[in-house]
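User: Can you recover a sequence for this backbone? Please restate the input before giving your answer.

Assistant: Of course. Working from this structure:
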């Protein structure tokens, strides 16, 4: 099966306050429909790696491929298009615009991409909210819903442009066990029913154990 994401010999140094080799020869691939997690002690380089894989950080050596296309070395305008089209991102904090409605929040990345009419985008956004079981919240202000609901809205927003991969940086880090479980089940459903690939950095061992495989990081290297 095709690789959705492939990292080849990624190395990164932070030069200040002194030279620090933070990522050491990172190579791995994620195929379509795979759900992987990244674990490792604090400071092992997980977030730094995710920043590179999501094309937000371009200061590294090595090669990054998305859907078998080399993205390393592309112009920032191109990277921003690639990111909007191919990558959905869910963070520990939801970063919803609190004064906007749930529906408006979900529609935003599609409006930014400007490939569809506002009516089509609204239709898509409602479908995503339905998929996540929160269509009843569409007209609510984002500030008025619970933490677990906010994270589901953030997932709907990450899915609006039908990305090939969903990345998460501690997406359950701020949730209680009931809501964490809920997020895990949504991710699993996206893998099984939509063939989505997922890559999630987590400190939650129970969450990681239930993914297809764990990328274990230690001191900037993949150990297993
Ligand atoms: N901008 C920076 N300049 C210098 N060093 C940095 C910078 N950002 C991160 N680091 C260092 O790089 C290392 C890896 O950081 P990173 O945030 O990737 O770790 P992590 O595994 O995600 O940790 P955590 O689990 O705590 O989020 C740490 O030692 C950190 O102090």
């Amino acid at each position: 099966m095709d690789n959705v994401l492939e990292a080849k010999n990624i190395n990164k140094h932070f030069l200040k306050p002194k030279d620090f080799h933070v990522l050491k020869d990172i190579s791995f691939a994620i195929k379509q429909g795979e759900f992987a997690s990244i674990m490792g002690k604090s400071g092992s380089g997980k977030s730094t790696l995710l920043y590179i894989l999501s094309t937000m950080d371009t200061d590294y050596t090595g090669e990054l491929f998305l859907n078998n296309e080399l993205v390393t070395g592309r112009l920032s305008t191109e990277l921003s298009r690639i990111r909007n089209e191919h990558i959905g991102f869910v963070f520990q904090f939801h970063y919803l615009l609190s004064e906007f409605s749930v529906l408006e929040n979900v529609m935003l990345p599609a409006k930014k991409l400007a490939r569809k009419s506002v009516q089509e985008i609204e239709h898509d956004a409602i479908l995503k909210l339905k998929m996540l079981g929160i269509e009843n919240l569409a007209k609510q202000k984002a500030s008025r819903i619970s933490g677990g609901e906010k994270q589901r809205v953030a997932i709907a927003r990450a899915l609006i442009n039908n990305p090939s991969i969903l990345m998460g940086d501690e997406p359950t880090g701020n949730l209680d066990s009931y809501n964490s479980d809920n997020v895990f089940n949504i991710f699993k459903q996206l893998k099984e029913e939509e063939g989505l690939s997922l890559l999630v950095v987590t400190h939650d061992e129970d969450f990681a154990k239930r993914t297809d495989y764990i990328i274990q990081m230690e001191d900037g290297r993949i150990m297993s």
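That completes the design. The two ends are 22 Å apart (CA to CA).
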